[in-house]
Automatic annotation (TrEMBL):
SUPFAM superfamilies: P-loop containing nucleoside triphosphate hydrolases. PROSITE patterns: HELICASE_CTER. GO terms for molecular function: ATP binding; hydrolase activity; RNA helicase activity. Keywords: ATP-binding, Helicase, Hydrolase, Mitochondrion, Mitochondrion nucleoid, Nucleotide-binding, Transit peptide. One of its GO terms (cellular component) is mitochondrial nucleoid. This is ATP-dependent RNA helicase SUPV3L1, mitochondrial. It comes from the Eukaryota. It is an enzyme of class 3 (hydrolase). Its EC number is 3.6.4.13. The gene is supv3l1. It comes from Merluccius polli (Benguela hake). Its cofactor is Mg(2+); Mn(2+). One of its GO terms (biological process) is mitochondrial RNA 3'-end processing. Belongs to the helicase family.
């Protein structure tokens, strides 16, 4: 490594540890703490060495090494080579080069220098092209080649020139050791020197759902002078924020898009409730609560729990979660040299799995919550419920928080006629709702696997327990929880799932930081951010207790804005924005924001209003509602960015006002969601017109999905006046009852597939 590079890397490393100290908690923060002249992570001398189960140095995935265009500098030599010898015979050269390529010894020598077969081949093609197409080669190479042509030189003499060429087009070959060092993630406990400087007391509150784990931790948090609550959902952070203030303890709320300070002058209160990604690892607290610790194994978000657990600067860390995480957290605490106390709890209310499936929506009772895993199922089921003259509340992930809260309040309110809830597993963690019975409409859920691919999986025991745990909450009027399925043949499967013990947690997530990526970029200045990340992950070494989180969403955004000129730090921050990539409007807005930002033009309130066409009218149908939800997400994105680039997103307060108004408009729409569904699709089964996206459990009629009836005979009959919508609804209800067994058959076949 050149002196300049060394200096730069050292500067970056120094800056990185400074940033660690000042980390605002907004990013997966900086961490590796290098020391001395060797650049190896500082050992803080704790008793247990966990590197024994570390992964060996990884063989990089060389398919990620994108060759650069070769830049020749032989103009310095001009045609000296040819003048000293003679012009080269190209056909002779071609033969010599091909012999060089086929020589096993050359391939072996190249492999020793990091060129595997793939890279050797690519480097050779590039080298051959250079030698054959350049009008003048460097003098030394020209002379060597001429000697070989004349029989006076050896073919092996080409190797140093070939290697020089290879390292120019694959610059990573020259700095592999540095890249390996930067991507060495083996001792994450050392990334948080401030937390390591204090002796923290760790208390694990373990137990099943609804056993009072969070309650007990919060009791201690309330009595502390300062405290932070870190939760998995905005809604949970909000619940704790409200409860804490209701108890007379001043508490702020911090989520990616929101900072609510109780002090009118904006001074931070002693207590804060936040989403876990946002917790500060540089602020000292007396008590920290980390809720739902089992999420540490989550393939996308696990890094945030790891960071909180290792990095929070609190005298007492209260960890709440499934018993399956106890041994693992204790193991992690060995690496920090901290002891852990375990408090175990039992369920506060009884809970039973029923012997009968619901079978028909006619059997719904007050306090029922139907759980689906797709929005389409939410729409179709709520419509079916309305057909039966019942009112229902709906909660799904993409609703704004205000709407979710108002729907939860409506359902919880004993005086409201709405007694049924239809929800996705957005309600599945820690929330307190007045549910008596959970009904799984399906047990199959789309998941993203470790490779980032979408697949349909039967829900895990942990997921099933979390969701079922919403029934019969201690604080609700239902003092006993029940769980069942919609379909008869799902019930034994659910019983099987719930009878299993949750697999003990084995690994925790990690995430590369902006600083690490910045150091990578210094070494590989021509690589794209997405490619840098790929190479980082491929080279990274983790201790056996950790894994690198899936970063496909990050890469998706990085690829989307690659062509926009941004400095690396800003590009990195943009790509960590939590965006639903399935929403085209949000994605195009992201692109527009980045473009405007790159032109150094502040994104003003007027600009944003024009962009989302504010003011927006109330929704007339589901498509309008989906658009409003996306517009809300765009404003969320604005607010999220405004906390990271205040000067470029200056109108936070104004945007927050219209976002609140938009939340109100959406609330109104959702209050009448069945009217919107009806307006979209009178047959009422697939308002988004995405039959294929509906869960496999949606009943089908004679192989034809009910939800596709928008263009069907039924809708034509209605259009031609041969069938009234009311008659159709009646028929639909009858079909529904008839096709449940048929639907089950289809689902069974689907599952087998
Ligand atoms: N000792 C108690 N006194 C009064 N209310 C309690 C007590 N313990 C728990 N609760 C209430 O019971 C409900 C369930 O408790 P809590 O949310 O702490 O359970 P949990 O074990 O964290 O559940 P989950 O695993 O679903 O997060 C909450 O509304 C909580 O306020
Ligand atoms: Mg809890």
């Amino acid at each position: 490594m050149s002196v300049n590079r060394c200096m730069h890397v050292l500067r970056l490393q120094r800056r990185m540890s400074v940033l660690t100290l000042r980390s605002p908690g907004a990013l997966p923060d900086s961490r590796v703490c290098y020391g001395g002249t060797t650049g190896s992570p500082i050992s803080l001398g704790f008793s247990r060495d966990v590197s024994s189960n570390s992964s060996p140095p990884t063989t990089p995935d060389t398919s990620l090494f994108v060759p650069l265009a070769f830049k020749s500098d032989c103009s310095v030599d001009g045609s000296v080579g040819a003048e000293l010898t003679q012009p080269l015979d190209k056909s002779e050269l071609l033969k010599i080069l091909n012999r060089f390529y086929k020589k096993k010894e050359m391939q072996k020598l190249a492999a020793d220098q990091g060129l595997d077969a793939r890279l050797f081949h690519q480097a050779f093609i590039s080298f051959r092209k250079y030698v054959l197409e350049m009008t003048s080669l460097g003098a030394a190479l020209h002379i060597i080649l001429n000697d070989i042509c004349c029989g006076a030189g050896h073919i092996d003499d080409i190797f140093p020139y070939f290697m020089l060429h290879a390292k120019q087009i694959f610059p990573m070959l020259d700095c592999m050791d540095d890249l390996r060092k930067i991507s060495d993630l083996r001792v994450p406990a050392n990334w948080y020197p401030e937390a390591r400087a204090i002796q923290r007391k760790v208390i694990f509150h373990a137990g099943p759902t609804n056993s009072g784990k969070t309650y007990q931790a919060i009791q201690r948090y309330l009595t502390a002078k300062t405290g932070v609550y870190c939760g998995p959902l905005k809604l949970l952070a909000h619940e704790i924020f409200e409860k804490t203030n209701d108890m007379g303890v001043m508490c702020d709320l911090v989520t990616g898009e929101d900072r609510t300070f109780m002090d009118p002058e904006g001074r931070a209160a002693g207590h804060v409730a936040c989403t876990i990604e946002m917790c500060s690892v540089s602020t000292p607290y007396e008590v920290a609560v980390i809720d739902e610790i089992q999420m540490i194994r989550d393939t996308s978000r696990g890094w945030a729990w790891t960071r909180a657990l290792l990095g929070l600067c609190a005298e007492e860390i209260h960890v709440c979660g499934e018993p399956a995480a106890i041994d693992f957290v204790r193991e992690l605490m060995y690496t920090t040299g901290e002891e852990m106390e375990v408090h175990t709890y039992q369920r506060l209310t009884p809970f039973s799995i029923l012997d009968n499936a619901l079978e028909s929506l006619d059997n719904l009772r007050p306090g029922d919550c139907i759980v689906c895993f797709s929005k389409n199922d939410i729409y179709s089921i709520s419509r079916q419920i309305e057909i039966r003259g019942l009112e229902c509340a709906v909660i799904y992930g993409s609703l704004p928080p205000g709407t979710k809260l108002s729907q939860a309040k409506k359902f919880n309110d004993p005086d409201d006629p709405c007694k049924i809830l239809v929800a996705t597993d957005a309600i599945g963690m820690g929330l307190n709702l007045s549910i008596k019975r959970i009904i799984f409409s399906t047990l199959v859920k789309p998941n993203i696997n470790e490779k980032g691919e979408k697949q349909m999986d039967t829900i895990s025991t942990s997921q099933a327990l979390q969701i079922s745990g919403r029934a019969g909450r201690f604080s609700s009027k239902f003092k006993e929880g029940e769980v069942t399925t919609m379909h008869r043949d799902d019930l034994p499967i659910l019983k099987g799932i719930l009878s299993l013990t949750v697999e003990p947690i084995q690994t925790a997530g990690l995430h590369p930081t902006a600083e690490q990526i910045e150091m990578f970029a210094y070494h590989l200045p021509d690589a794209t951010l997405s490619n840098l990340i790929d190479i980082f992950v491929s080279l990274s070494r983790v201790d056996g207790l950790y894994f690198v989180c899936n970063i496909d969403d990050f890469k998706f955004l990085a690829d989307m804005i690659q062509h926009i000129p941004l400095n690396l730090r800003s590009r990195y921050v943009f790509c960590t924005a939590p965006i639903n990539k399935k929403q085209p409007f949000v994605c195009t807005s992201f692109l527009k924001f980045a473009r405007q930002f790159s032109r150094d033009e502040p994104l003003t309130f007027d600009w944003v209003c024009r962009h989302i066409s504010w003011p927006l009218p109330p929704p007339k149908n589901i498509k309008d509602l989906v658009h409003l939800e996306a517009a809300h997400d765009v404003l969320d994105l604005y607010l999220w960015l405004s906390y990271r680039f205040m000067d470029m997103f200056p109108d936070t307060a104004l945007v927050r006002v219209i976002q609140q108004q938009l939340d109100d408009i959406i609330q109104q729409g959702v209050r009448n969601i069945t009217r919107l569904i009806r307006a979209t699709d009178p047959a009422g089964a697939d308002p988004l017109g995405r039959g294929a996206a509906a869960s496999p459990r949606v009943p089908r009629l004679g192989g034809m999905p009910l939800e596709r009836r928008g263009n069907s005979l039924a809708s034509r009959l209605v259009k031609d006046g041969l069938l009234t919508p009311d008659l159709l609804r009646q028929l639909q209800s009858e079909w529904f009852k008839e096709v449940v067994p048929q639907g089950q058959e289809v689902a069974r076949k689907n599952k087998k597939k």
